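[stage:ingest] chain + small molecule (iron/sulfur cluster)
[stage:ingest] validated
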Amino acid sequence: MIRSILRGLSVTLRTMVRPPVTIEYPEFKRPVAERFRGRHELKRYDNGLERCIGCSLCAAACPADAILVVPAENTDEERYSPGERYAAVYEINLLRCIFCGLCEEACPTEAITMTQLFEMSVTNRNDAIYTRSELLMNPDGTVPHPQPDSILVDKGELRLADGWMRATASSGRAAYEGVIAWTATAGVGTRAAELGQSRQPTADSQQQETDTGDGRRATGDEADHG
Ligand code: SF4
Ligand code: SF4
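[stage:predict] done
[stage:export] tokens:
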């Protein structure tokens, strides 16, 4: 009993003499975890076409029912994505979102991506619904954000994607199920492989690819270049 009390008091005394840990936010920002999941963005291929094909798999996977997708048909005259359809309406209600990342995990084209930007405070509930105009990356790789550049908003975080999808996704192709792959950094540029990740498919996945007759490669490079 006495020993327990003394042990408890020693913790108190140690804490009393420890220097305070005060982060002078926003002048100084503590780095977030490498796999931190912040606000979403919709990526494009290098040729400018949108990755999103309006399939709504992200909306189906979302446990918070936070995503609305309304697809429309591409035409030869008006083409937005390589597929038959594109997302004419794409909305995420960030008041509902629990930042679980299941939407990006479900996406077959790695269009919806979570970045490391977390400065998303709003004073109006409607502003928390991010629409296509906020989510879709510009052709130059920049991403619109409703808040202006300031010490509070670091838009560089929009170029950093979370790593969770890359560690688990198979680039949406059955032949690559279980193969660890990763996509490009959100925005432009390519992120280096993480420890344990492989850019090349395994012998097993190549065999499956042959078996399924899918001659295309599903590495991050291939997916990035459409
Ligand atoms: S992160 Fe999770 S909760 Fe948020 S939109 Fe994606 S699936 Fe829904
Ligand atoms: S973001 Fe991905 S999963 Fe969602 S509608 Fe577009 S292509 Fe489909």
